[in-house]
Amino acid sequence: MTPKHNIYKSPKNPILYWLFNNLEYLYTPKGEILYRGDKMSIHDVYPNELIEKTAEELKKIEAIKPPTWSVFAKTGAHKERAPLEKDWWYTRAAAILRTICILGPIGVSKLRTKYGGKKRRGHKKAHFRKGSGSVIRKILQQLEKAELAKFVEKDVHKGRIAAPKGKALLDKTAAAILKSKENKHPKKKKEKTAEDKEEKKSGKEEKQKAKKNKETEKKKENKAKDNKKENDKIQTPVKEAKAGKEE
C-alpha cells in the first residue's frame, strides 16, 4: 500500500519527513496505517503466517537441513513424544529467526526458557522445564552458516542477532503476505456505465411518481372525510326536527 497523503514524502515538512523515513509505520488522522512500499516490518503481519512462509523460504537454503536424529528427538523434556509434523525443523528455525530479530542479542539459555513448557507428573503438580538446547544450538549454527544470523556483544548482553540478510528475508515475506491479502480482497470501484445511469434515473422517476400518487390519494381521502363531516352537520338538525314532529 502506498501512502495517500503526499505530506509525509515532501521534505518541506521536516518533522513528518523524518518520521516517515525512520519509523516502521505511521498512522493517518483516521487511524489507518501508512505503509511505505517495500519497507514493511515484521509487526505488520500475524506471527503464525510469517513463520509458515519463512519456513517455506528456508527449505530452499542448503545450509539449513534437519539432522538424521530429528525424526526421533523431542523438542524438550516437557514433551511426551516427538513432533508429528515432518518439517518441524524449518518451522522452529523460522520462529527462532523471528525471535532473534525482535529480541536480539539473545542466547541459547533464554531461547530454551521461551520454548519450554510444563511437564506433566501425573497426580503431582506440573513443573516448568526448559526446551531442548541441542535443537536450538544446531539451528543457530545453521542460520549463521546461511548468513541469516550473527554473534554480537552489546555491553553486558551476548548472543545472536538477525543479520541484514535475515531481516531482508523476513521483511520480504511480510510484504508478500500483505500483497497476497490485498489481491484476494481488492477494493474495486464499479465503473458506472450508461445503463446503470439510466436505471438510476428510472428508479428515481418511479419513486417520485409513487410519492405523487400517495399524496393525491391522501388528499382524496381527506376531502372525502371533510365532505362526510359537513353532511353529518347538515343532517343532524333535520333528524332532530323530524323526531320532534313525530312526538
Q: Which range best describes the helical content: under 10%, 10-25%, 25-40%, 40-55%, 55-70% or over 70%?
A: 40-55%
**CATH homologous superfamily annotation of the largest domain:** Winged helix-like DNA-binding domain superfamily/Winged helix DNA-binding domain
What is the ordering of alpha helices and beta strands? Answer: HEEHHHEEHEEHH
Biggest sheet strand order reads 1-2
Find the CATH topology of the largest domain: Arc Repressor Mutant, subunit A
The beta-strand count equals: 6
CA gyration radius, whole angstroms: 37 Å
What structural class do helix, strand and pairing data support?
Answer: mainly alpha
Q: Quaternary status of these chains?
A: single chain
Unreliable stretches, pLDDT < 50, 5 or more residues? 1-10, 33-38
What is the arithmetic mean of pLDDT?
80
How many structural units, i.e. domains? 3
Question: What is the global morphology?
Answer: elongated
Largest sheet: 2 strands, antiparallel
Into which percentage range does the β-strand content fall?
5-15%
Distance from N terminus to C terminus (CA atoms, Å) equals 96 Å
What's a concise summary of this model?
This protein has 247 residues and is mainly alpha-helical. It has seven helices and six strands. The chain has three domains: 1-39, no CATH class; 40-184, Arc Repressor Mutant, subunit A (Orthogonal Bundle), CATH 1.10.10; 214-247.
